[in-house]
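Posted in: Structural Biology > Protein-Ligand Complexes

Title: Requesting predicted complex, magnesium ion in pocket

I'd be grateful if someone could produce the 3D structure tokens for the following input. Sequence and ligand are given below.
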Amino acid sequence: MALPTIRELLKSSGPKTGAVARGWVKTRRDSKMLSFAELNDGSCRESLQVVFSQENGNFLEVLPSLVTGAAVEIQGDLIASPAAGQKYELQARLVRVYGGCDPEKYPIQKKRASDEFLRTVAHLRPRTNKYAAMLRIRAELAYSVHKYFHDKGFFYVHTPIITASDGEGAGEMFTATTMDLSDLASLPRTDKGEIDFSKELLGKKTYLTVTGQLEGESLATALGKIYTFGPTFRAENSNTYRHASEFWMIEPEMAFYELEDDMELAEDFIKSITRSVLEKCPSDIELFAKFVEPALMDNLRNITENTFERLTYTDAVKLLEPVNERFDVKVSWGVDLASEHERFLVENYFKKPVILYNKPKEAAAFYMKLNDDGRTVRGMDVLVPRIGEVIGGSERENRLDVLEKKMAEAKIDPQTYWWYLDLRRYGSVPHSGFGLGFERMMMLITGISNIRDVTAFPRVPGYAEF
Ligand code: 4AD
Ligand code: MG
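-- Reply #1 --
Done. Output follows.
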């Protein structure tokens, strides 16, 4: 039977006889005649204090099972709490233990454990205050993304997860195959002895998607404004605090938008979803400000209250070159900026988010629109404190001849992209879009410093447990 959650019980308009709460015991302490337990069901950060009087109900009988981690149901009366910091407590009458828990072996103890340890018990870490708060914020952030675009008239579209083309042209894809790679001799071969992917289940060699953008462009040049929100896979071997092999990306794509419109939308979007989570999850955010990142509220105000700096790549190089001694990779015009340079601009120089645009064409994806100077493209990155790049986007090359030339330069086979080129043949328009890394946005909002800790079950190089 569906019962009110603890979140709902704590919001009750008044005391209630005959209340029932279910959840997991966080802690229990005993005094002479009374015992107190903190019961949490995951619905909110706050636990419900349950008071057991020893002469009441079956209390003495169940006492040994009322331990940290046990799953229980408690029937009793919700009364105004005499204790500070909580409006109500539950006076227990009857206790039912669903599942006991061996306190000696239970990996989640009251004492705070390290993030590294908790990753080894990722199936149980959602029971900790911190990870439960992270997951509730994650759910709210996802909702606020949908609400933002829905309210602005964007259509939510679904792009394929298994694809035949490399949307970034960077060659960082996981192959998706039904072939039995443990038995190479069994693989179908062409006359030349190469693996014959035409015998694949889907009829060709396929991969897990690195972006929904190219299909998104097809849909935006029909529906006007669309967005995707889906899983994304990158086979790059980057073992860093901000790279995952599987992550979620939000990709809006807009017909008739130029780069300036794209940057404006990106800034408004980040500010808006940040405000909305701050408003919806004050208690969970407070946990992170208190225990994880002391500067969190200042950092978030920095996002919501400042106008993001617009900076061309060329101007960025002018700022960075004189302080090259600070960097491992020295900057000069043409060098692809790395996280150390991005963070210097954001954290030390401007002290606020920066939108870096017009980068050299060599450091950019093939689909970005070439500027009239012939050497930069209309691409942009939104850079934020602590994380660096949180959004990458661009105005797309909408001229067929220029796109074909750029693809040839990048040694990209136009045949695979025949349909993408068609979008430039039939009713081509200026259009733009960007991708927001959902986990990086989560790092920004919670202050969590490692991408492994903003998703329930991380997928990173060398790790696919759970
Ligand atoms: O800059 P990226 O590679 O851009 C694209 O994929 C474009 N197709 C987006 C578009 O224009 N529609 O990736 C976009 C964002 C990055 O800014 C970053 O936040 C995130 O996706 N991202 C990653 N997040 C976690 N782990 C990784 N390995 C990531 N790679 C990119
Ligand atoms: Mg990028």
